[in-house]
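As noted in the main text, all predictions were made from sequence alone. Below is one such record, for STAS domain-containing protein.
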Amino acid sequence: MGTSREIAIGPVAVISLLLSSMVQKLEDPMANPIAYHKLVLTVTFFAGTFQAAFGLFRSGFLIDFLSHAAIVGFMAGAAIVIGLQQLKGLLGITHFTNKTDVVSVLKVVWSSFQHPWNPYNFLLGCSFLIFILITRFLGRKNKKLFWLPAIAPLVSVVLATLIVFLTKADKHGVDIVKHIKGGLNPSSVDQLQFNGPHVGELAKIGLIVAIIALTEAIAVGRSFAAIKGYHLDGNKEMVAMGFMNIIGSFTSCYVATGSFSRTAVNFSAGCETAMSNIVMAVTVFISLELLTKLLYYTPVAILASIILSALPGLIDVNEACNIWKVDKLDFLACIGAFLGVLFATVEIGLLVAVTISFAKIIVVSIRPGTETLGKLPETDAFGDVNQYPMAVKTPGVLIMRLKSALLCFANANFVRERIMKWVIEEEKDSKLRNAEKTIQIVILDISNLMDIDTSGIASLEELHKNFYSNGMKLAIANPRWQVIHKLKLANFVPKIGGRVFLSIGEAMAYFSI
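Prediction:
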């Protein structure tokens, strides 16, 4: 039902940890596992309901607050975190942390080296990691070998399992998957609890988990959509995730979302459509029914190496450098997401990036720029004198353009002071040049202005009063219909003598300049 072509759905570490930590406050999983199980399924139902509601009520615009720069940083940070998490399987570490930040993971890895550890896991994992990377390199160099990197992970699993089985490597310290319970999940419709004492708390947990799961899934989906160059429909993704989790709550599943590690593997395998999820589902179905015994000897290290092989392509250093060159505030969002994911959690990283993006919007909105215009030679056009040095200023006239789509309470005073500052500076320049004419007319081009509020209108009235007291006239050019409509309702147009014009040229002609 979604629009992402690469996203792979399943349980993820962050949601798993969040769900267990919040639900166990209501019910002890060790003391009463059945009741705990029912609460988790109910939370999953609520999470799915909220997600579907977000999509049906067209709330997909919320994902637009995840900027391109934030996604680049998020991807790089998540790739490193996922890679560090795989050290557990690659090194055969038995006691590993549930935290995802780099400091906690490195502490556990460092402490593991101080205890006896088995190198066979590392040798096995690294050998097949090198094999997968070589096949990927060959596939890029020779287009005819495109199939080689696609089948390399599957071949690695089969060969590694055979090696462990034939050499009895599990007896020598190699960690294996071991027993997997076969068969399909039983129905859990009758286990959902809507009448218990914890319904309100479960709904609250469901809402929190729903938002975080959606944020992560859409961030993952948009990351890979950006690489492939297509648009992700946030509303459809929300509806798809919602119905998926609702159905999951009916079939003994807890909250699932887009998995970064599985999606990375899916992407690197060359998937092109969402059909890959159906292939995965059918494969899991067949495996649960028939192949669970064959997977007994699969080494954990090979699974870690497959995930690690997919991560280098997610760290785009060149794009981060380009972001730095183009926009420093965007780079701040990028590095904020990267460091937040790396040293805290995925949620903190995304929150930092969104906060910086919001701050950027606010700063740009409350401190809009202004530019002085001059007439371009041999044309009727007017351009910024800084952009077009050949533009000619008209003596006695100051033409200014407001570079803001909104003149409101947040920026009205700043704009008024900025314009007054320009006028005073122009007056000083005129006196220093001994110009015959000082500024007599100020033409304000508001073609960029889409809307104005009462504070904005009040600032224009103050400008008019200041200019009038100093013997200058204010004229308005290029107003949008929404703006001129409000100016008329506020009785501003008569106050400036009706000097509102369709263009700067028309204003100049009116003053016979």
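The chain has two domains: 8-361, 370-511. The two ends are 63 Å apart (CA to CA). These features were considered when defining construct boundaries for the mutagenesis experiments described in Section 2.9.
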